[in-house]
Fold this protein.
Amino acid sequence: MNRILLSLATLILLAGCGGSDTPPTGGGNFSTTARSLPGKPVVVLETSKGAIAIELYPDKAPITVKNFLDYVDDKFYDGTVFHRVMPDFMIQGGGFLPGMKEKTTKSSIKNESGNGLSNVPGTIAMARTRDPHSASAQFFINVNDNSRLDNQGGGYCVFGKVIDGMDVVHKIRTVPTDTIAGHQNVPVDNVVIQMARRAPE
């Protein structure tokens, strides 16, 4: 099922994008020096626009962080795209391959919003449907103050923040988009997550 984000007045539908792009690079040679700390694991997304390092908060969202790390460890995100980009809102990815091919996910998880973390610029949160407990693999990175999402329709769970690579996030949020196959805000050229890996301590 496509995941959606709720804006103030409308449902923001998920979308995919077509075409092909660079395959996953594999390995763990990151173009960032970010490192994991005890109790605060870091995941690096190596994208076709550069690296994004995300610090996770298992103390605030243990179920969500474990779920995200399980997908990372399974290399689920390798080769997926940022399929929805809204320059004043967020960039969303983690569920589609190039060609708008949706990946099969694991079961949905419990919504851990209301954990004291807010949807402010640079934070990462789970995408979902109108059902608050429907998040699985897809996530979004806030590029604006979206704190209204904290309590909207059950809330959108923030579980980490970008600690390196916000310049890459801004590159992605400004890519040209179009409506493709009925899906809005799809990057014209694929923005690929070439690999997602835990950063070493």
User: Anything to note?
Assistant: The first strand starts at residue 4 and ends at 6. The longest helix spans residues 62-73. The chain has one domain: 34-198. Residues 2 and 132 are 14 Å apart (CA to CA).
